[in-house]
Amino acid sequence: MDFTLSDVQELTRTMVREFAERELAPIAAEIDQNHRFPIETLPKLAENNLFGIPFPEEWGGAGLDYVSYAIAIEEISRVCATTSIIVETHTSLALEAIFNYGSDEQKRDYVADLASGRKLASFALTEPMAGTDAAMQESTAILKDGEYILNGSKVFITDGNYSDVFVVFAKTNPDPALGTRGISAFIVEAGLPGFTAGEGERKMGLRAANTSTLMFSDVRLPADALLGKEGEGFKIAMSVLDAGRVGIAAQAVGIAQGALDAAVKYAKERVQFGKPIGNLQAIQWMLADMSTDLEAARLLTYKAAHLQDLGKRFSVEAAHAKLFAGQMASRVAGMAIQIHGGNGFTESYPVERAYRDAKITEIYEGTNEVQRMVISRALLR
Amino acid sequence: MRIVVAFKWAADYQEASVNGSGEVDWSRARPVVSSYDAVAIEVARQIADAVSGEVIGLSVIGEPTVPSMATKTALARGLDRVVVVADETLNNASTTQTGEVLSRAIRQIGDVDLVLAGDSSIDVAAKMVSSIAAGFLGWPAFTDVGNVNVTHGSGVELTRPTAVGSETFTVTRPTVVALTADAVVARVPGMKDILAAGKKPVEQLSLASLGDLESVPYTVRGTSRPSHGARLQKVIDATDTSAAVKQLAGILRDAGVS
Questions:
Q1: CA of A371 to nearest chain B CA: how many angstroms apart?
Q2: What is the pLDDT of residues A161-207, one digit of tens each?
Q3: Cross-chain Cβ contact A22/B188 below 8 Å
Q4: Using a CB-CB distance cutoff of 8 angstroms, which residues of chain A are in contact with residue B32?
Q5: Residue A11: its chain B contacts at CB < 8 A?
Q6: pLDDT tens digits, residue range A66-101?
Q7: pTM (predicted TM-score)
Q8: Quick check: is A365 catalytic?
Q9: In which region does residue A146 sit, left (phi positive, over 0), alpha (psi from -120 to 50) or beta (all else)?
Q10: 3-state secondary structure of A9
Q11: Domains of chain A listed by start with CATH number
């Protein structure tokens, strides 16, 4: 068993950290406080090949592995979780779906543009009545005269107001007896007649990320917009959500690392009782617990990503990683605030943003409870 | 055009610490490409791209084998290939030795038109190695250079700041240039650069292949952090430069500087 990262993985950490410190750190607090989508960051992410890290070079990707991708998400999240979710949903969900399930023609039409960052993509599964119970899709895409007519709405769609391409799920056969086998996936381009996006939500965390509603009213999709086969949509969604969970686990690890770094810095600088508070055992124990918690989450995350690289099943490992890392990030960010005392409760220090950002990692791309379902089902099978 | 960039694989001073007795502890400082040299690589890359040239990284390492992270980090930043002189006897080599080894390696590479380096290094900061290398080569050396322009057929144009503005030189023969840290902003390598770095050539030269060195080694006997004496709070009026120099010399003498 070798826990040593490869040169490429170490270099990924070094270079993405440098990128994040230079390009993201100066704006991270401002975009959060103003709920401002960092549109100016997208070309920089593209220039550094951060939109297609684990996809082959011949398809416009960077050709790195999934562990490197997890490290990149971690380093971006350490500085700006908003930016990491832009990269993560684009890569782990939308692009992963098109790359793995697209026809040769679809891959030719979309993958290079998406992996290179020339276009941005979203993943549209969640509906008002289909959150954790994703099978309860109400959107429909009915085949008529060689076209699919898409109707319905989606909620909580990351980058909904900014993406060029959407992977959208809808029922192609509303027969209740078919269940999830009535759901199909489609590639839908922004700007089609009848396709509109609502205003972005104002959120507790990831405030600068764009999260919007999508509305489809008689949107006419060509038959070749179908991703995979009819009825495969739910399988596609669950498959790419496994990849997404590794990405979110990495995001949680990065958020926690940022909080821990801030807490260590503060413990060295803040003087109380005539000495830096880092000299106090109460603070030392908190830092030790945070570090241990964080390292356990990191190892679970890298293990899941490593299995993904090996082409093995990683559903349970992804659930382990996301469940533990999400809860860990909330714990670590909370302790980081505790170490900061009253200062940590203000916007003047980054730990309050980490605390707000961490919470969503326990919710999206499968709540803690869904991860427990995945894990326990595997145990009891 | 063939450009050599001398780069140092050095301990990151940001991860060094000073213990209670004033000794600098480098043991937990991970090595990185000296940030000054990253600027030199960037300048070299920009020149090479403009004139279809080649950028060769050159480093002297006091280890028997070349650390792959050292070469890949530098290659990812824009080098076409790397030549490394790696030898245990060069561990803690003096600036003079390092400059001489660089000069020998530059001659061995051959047909070099321009040597670029950072003006300093992140650890020792002797600020002399590039000039020493130029001395051994018998080439002109320019330090503190903020801008380098190369145009076909007219040599290399160098600009460096002075106390009252800047001065520009045109050099029409091989030369060694040390660049300021702010000459350009070094780009952050992209993910594709990281993968490409592993596919670029790395050549290791033995010290023996460069012949016997002329320079004499020396040993650093100790390090300490600077003592913080009380500030003298003296302000010198420099309107009359000659008088100002005399006044400064007097103050230093009175302060015990001999």
A1: 31
A2: 999 999 999 999 988 889 899 999 999 999 999 999 999 999 999 99
A3: yes
A4: 14
A5: 69, 72-73, 76, 189, 194, 197
A6: 999 999 999 999 999 999 999 999 999 999 999 999
A7: 0.88
A8: yes
A9: left
A10: helix
A11: 7-115 (1.10.540.10), 121-231 (2.40.110.10), 235-380 (1.20.140.10)
